[in-house]
Structures are given as C-alpha cells and as structure tokens.
Amino acid sequence: MKNLKKEFPVLSQNTYLNTASSGLLYDSLLDYRQEHDFDFLIEGSMFRDQQEKQLNAVRESIGTFLGCKLENTILTPNFSLGFNTILNGLDKNQKILLLDEDYPSINFSTISKGFEICFASANSSLEENIENAISKHNPNIFAFSLVQYLNGITINLEFLKQLKLKNPDLLIIADGTQFCGTRVFDFNSSGIDILGCSGYKWLLGGYGNGFFLFKEGILEKITPDTYNKAVSSTNYDSSYTNLRARYECGHLDTFNFRSLQFSLEFLSKIGLPRIEENIQELANYAKTKLIASNLLETDVIERSNHSSIFNIKATKETYNSLKEKNIITSLRGNGIRISLHFYNTIDDIDKLLANI
C-alpha cells in the first residue's frame, strides 16, 4: 500500500505510529470537505434543507460498512457523549461489569454515575477472567473496549458470541473506537448488543463524528419509563420525541458526519479485507521484533491474537528522542504506545527499533 502514502502529507515528513491517538487527514478528504463548505456558502439554508437526506446517507454507509440497519444506527459527535446518554437512561440498580484499566470514557463515566461495579482483569487470561467475573458477580451489563487502548489487548469476537448465547439477558456494550476500520466485522451476527465508536481514529473520519449501533429491540429495552411518560404527555411532533431524538439532540453537523461517510467509502474502495491483511502482517512483524528486543509485557506476548497497538518498554526520554527524529508515538501507562495502520510499512517498524 505504499502508493497510498502520498494521500497523507504527514507521512512525507514523519514516521507516524500514532493512529490510536489520531487518524490522519488526507488529500481526498480535504478536497471533499472544501466542496461541502462551498455548497453551504452558496446555498445557505437551502443546503440545510437537505440535512436529513444527507444524514440518512451517512447512516446507510455506516450500516453497510459494519452490518446494521439504518433505523438502528444513531449518530453522535463522539463515543463518550453517546455512552453517557445510554448510562443516563439505565436503571441505577443494575450491576455493571468493567475491565480494569479500560478507557476512562467507559470506566470513569460508569463509576461516577453510581452503578454497582465489578471488574475483570484485561490480561493474558482476559476471556477466562470475564467468565469468572460473570459467574461470581452476576452483572446485568458488560461494558468494555474491544481493543484496550493502553496495550492493544483484543477480546476474542467468537468468545463474545458464545458469552451472549450463555447469558442472553446480559446487555453487552462495546466501544469500537480502537477497532472499527482495522478488520472486517458484521455487527448483526456479533454477540454485541450496542456498539459505539468515534470516527477520528482508524476510520479516518476527522473529529466531531461517531455512531452507535443497536441490535433489534435494544433501544426500547433501555428506554426509561420517565421518557415514555414524557413523550405520551406532550403534543410535540415525533422528531422531538422518537428514540432517535433521545440520542441525536439538536442539529448534527453534516460537515463532520459526511466526512466520516467519505472515509468509509474511501476505506471500502481500498478493501477492508486488504486493509485487515496488511495491518495483521504489520502487527505480526512488530510483535516478533519487539519480543526479540524484550520490549513487550508478558500479557501481550502470551496472547495468540493481538491488535496493531503495542505498549513498549521505554522512558519519556526515549519518547522525546523519537519525537525529535519525527517518529510519532504516544506516552501511555508505563511505556510508549505505537499503533500501525494500513499506511504504515515494515520500514516504519524497523526505523522505530533502530532508534529505541
């Protein structure tokens, strides 16, 4: 995929190993965004009159990309806002299972709202730990990231299917922000009830866009009685009182959401199977080299399948040294996090290792 690198100007000056922090803007998307705002410039409110048609096209693109019906696709500016909206509508007497050290947008948001909480450890025995926690604590809800942001540990998707079959009443809510765009995935056939995602990382959609996908009937199951009573006592039209209005409050920005749609189509043209294969080849190469250099934690080494996110043993001084050499990473936890997307190469990994 080297010929695609010229779409991304950042790559001409940097070894960019930081998609887990922020995906890149690229030339084709910039051109599209300029066209979008030019249309708004010359049409004003007439451009906004097309908003619902445009946003439905976005929902359709998301559904096609990830396997979900348009009517079960909710648009949100980011994962955190959508997830908090869901939490605000849940009965506070429910018990929620979390993964220790998961993304704060999940764990802190849940803990701060007063739910009863239990935890499973996200280590080399992740799936076994989850099963044991469910058996011990009997939670109503399991909320977690598909890929752990600190070190890239990834939950087994087939395990989630079996987990749902064994625990049909367990509400499974997953954050796909570090997952969506890295591999082929079909939401409808997964074991996940609700999948949320921000679009600015692996989907390359820029900031200010995200979405939530709901299995059939789940929206109704998590709607509080107070909301239904309020709807029945008003005479507002349905655009203010339907379930979508509960999650899509106010005007949505077509600039941001259509940027996401453009990138979904961009990734689809490249081919998600091709992207997945390339990312996995890079991840396998990186893991082998990092193990040989004694730079990975035991929990990651012992996992048979892993994402393309790695936390390597290094100091802040090393991070600063890499940055001075235009090798872009992130400080996370007790080390340096690297993340590899389809626009990365073996040469990028080798350059990193030569400078650690």
UniProtKB/TrEMBL annotation:
Keywords: Lyase, Pyridoxal phosphate. The keyword Membrane does not apply. This is Selenocysteine lyase/Cysteine desulfurase. Gene3D superfamilies: Aspartate Aminotransferase, domain 1, Type I PLP-dependent aspartate aminotransferase-like (Major domain). It comes from the Bacteria. Signal peptide: none annotated. Residues 48-352 form the Aminotransferase class V domain. One of its GO terms (molecular function) is lyase activity. It holds the Pfam family Aminotran_5.
